[in-house]
Amino acid sequence: MYSKITVSALLALMALVPEISAHSVIVKATGANGSAGKALAVDDQTPRDGTRRNPFQRDSTVFRNQRTVAQAKGCGQTIQNGPINVATLMSQAASDGMPQVAPGGVLSMTLHQVNADGAGPYTCMIDSTGTGASFVAMTVTQNVAGQNGRNNRGNMQDLPLQVQIPANQQCTGTSGSATNICMVRCQNNARNGPFGGCVPVQVGAGGGNGTPGAGNGTAPATGNNGVDNAAGANPNTGAGAGNAGGNAGAGNNNRQGNAGNRQGNAGNRQGNRQGNRQGQAGNRQGQAGNRQGQNRQQRQGANNRQQNRQQRRWAA
Ligand SMILES: *[C@@H]1O[C@H](CO)[C@@H](O)[C@H](O)[C@H]1NC(C)=O
Ligand SMILES: *[C@@H]1O[C@H](CO)[C@@H](O)[C@H](O)[C@H]1NC(C)=O
To answer: Which keywords does this Swiss-Prot/TrEMBL entry list (predicted)?
Structure first.
């Protein structure tokens, strides 16, 4: 009897306790050269002008029972999405676009604080495999105001949150043709949280985004064209995946193609100049010919006029 009462009392109590919900969203993450993305499972259709659970909290991430960097595994869950499947949402991110940041560079995020316990301060961490398997702490260069994840003045605000990618960061994650992916995860310490989000980021130029130029450049040499190499890693001893990703980058092919294009253009300019000069010379000769022809005609005309005068005299 006692235990029956306890169970039903517990059930009644659970109905009163608000379901765990989430109260901040990383709605944008900007890298170098205009590249940008957002946290996994963020739904751009979610209105941002309210604080209620539905719809305003539906795409916020909660990292239940993972308060420390050491406890952090994967990318949490949202009300709308449920547990986040990193691989699936990563391929969505790869097709939507991801921020690209050089090693040592800054990733600038916009954190939308839905209500009071989406506040800062935030702890951020990075996973070099892009899968969320294992994170290490990283430097937050601009944080969100708050105490223990609470700040009543932060409701419905877009706030800057910036982290620095470690200078020696290697990123080995891939998704489709996108390479060099790391996962950045930021979370506050709210009692019902932690709240925050997971942002995939390409460190270095990533996959490039253009098709190779149509110029007559030679194919890129294998082995040395990757971002990892540019960042100073030894291509012969670095992780195989990193070098392969860099070498496959279409951006590098572009540079080679551009060199070819520039030479081709130079060739065209030379051809045009040569052709124009020859044409002008021809014109000059033609004009000289015209002048000679005119002179001959004038002389002939004068002769004709004399003959006419002679004939008129004879006739008279
Ligand atoms: C941004 O563009 C510059 C110039 O093309 C390039 O050198 C640099 O690697 C790019 N940065 C990233 C992070 O892709
Ligand atoms: C590309 O074409 C130009 C013009 O014909 C030529 O001068 C140049 O050597 C060519 N470059 C290569 C890499 O073949």
So the answer is: Signal
